[in-house]
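Bench notes, afternoon.
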Amino acid sequence: MMISIIKTTIAAAAIILGSAAAWAGSNAAAEAGKAYAAQDYNKALELYGQAAKADGVSGKLYYNIANTHYRLKDRGQAILYYERALMLDPSNSQVRADLEFVREKWQISEDTGASVAADTVGRLSTNTWATIAVVAFLLTLLLAAAYVAAPSVALRKVGFFGAGVTLAVCVVANVCAIYMYGRATSHDCAIVTVPQATLGTAPRQPKGKEVAFKLKEGYKVQLRDSVSSRNGLVTEKWYDVETSDSRRAWVSAKSITII
């Protein structure tokens, strides 16, 4: 219990103070940090938007935006930007801890059905896995050379078995890098960003028995399909989504934002 309280306190402090720290970038980024420190969160959001246009997006920028939305109690937007920050920098344990903290605080399930293996792989970025693969490949070459040129049987054995291990690491790291690249570019998940989304059994505004279930703001869903339908002069887009507990239904594009 005490450990849980300490973790919660640290996470809360990080969210409150995180965006106040100055970081390199445009003047807008520096001014946004000052506005955040002064608790002018709406101004901070405006300036972070300007910084994104001037400097481009980054995991740190998204993290700062997420913290700002958290202070404004914009649940859906806060979780959305924590998720986006993790997508760009999956190895950032602080972002992951803060995301877990806000989900727990707001009682929003974050279980997306990912396996332990997928979750473990997802803690490192594409570049990190690629770097591991390159280093493992170079070690494989060195160990293979040792196997060929070593003067003793013992050293040859070390070279042979060592090369086998590092080659296996190289292959696994390459697979993980490809998986993380696909995950980072797929954009197949979304966050509910309205107070409550009503999902239906068909791609239209559900009524009566067509209502499947409802999801509150901040809930994460996976996108399975999409269609566009015309309602008079207005064209509406609908997504077929799946929840962490395997429920599927249609939701309006206006109710969710893709990560």
